[in-house]
Amino acid sequence: MRRLKRAGFWLLVAAILLYCLFPFYYALVSSLRTPGALFEPAWWPRDWTLANYAAVFSQQPFGRNILNSVLVAASVVGLSLFAATLSAYALARLSFRGRGALLAAILAVSMFPQVAILSGMFELIRALGLYNNLAGLTLSYLVFTLPFTIWILTTFMRELPRELEEAALIDGAGAWQTLAFVFAPLVAPAMATAGLLAFIAAWNEFLFALTFTLTDNERTVPVAIALMSGASQYELPWGNLMAASVIVTLPLVALVLVFQRRIVAGLTAGAVKG
Question: Which of the following CATH numbers is that of domain 61-268: 2.40.40.20, 3.40.50.10170, 3.40.50.150, 1.10.3720.10?
Fold first, then answer.
């Protein structure tokens, strides 16, 4: 019976892995096929080629699109973590009237779908002169990355012992020094988790990037992939699309592998007290 349970567990794990990894495997294999062999029922292409990858960069400014996504996502992560760390410290460690209502309002902001605030954000971006500008994307992405970043860091900071803060105050440290030299190193796992989630959200965002950019040189990779076209409006370059999908997925996989320990530590922090 025990062996049967163990076998069932590993079968379930294998099924989950197959479900999660097969789309990426299919994209990788398809990106290495020639156009004539793209839809052949084979597990691996007999004649593989890198022409699809070369075409992605030669037919449009895809390198520039990747750079745009990196710049926007990195700036969103930096601004989100800076603002969220300050906000989380105030919400978790300071007592003031309306703290609970403010935290609930921050959570409520994240519940609005993007399409509901699209027109208002468009007017704001245009009024600030940031249309077709990467800074406009950074500003608009903060609307949905800041709320969950603040929530993650606030939950983590609440679990830190009060004695740490009291000891820092006795040693003459102010609020800024306590936050920078005492709390910041301790919340590093939570910051890694929140930062990675913010990076993924900014990297994959499509609606704002499509609405607030106009030229190819200012577009991010999701929009660039969506606007790829073939010789006619009815023909899509599937090999190019698969190659582009593989290219933009690899950075996310690499980030998760590099920060996996901190991510697990950040997600499980505060689960056990004592």
Answer: 1.10.3720.10
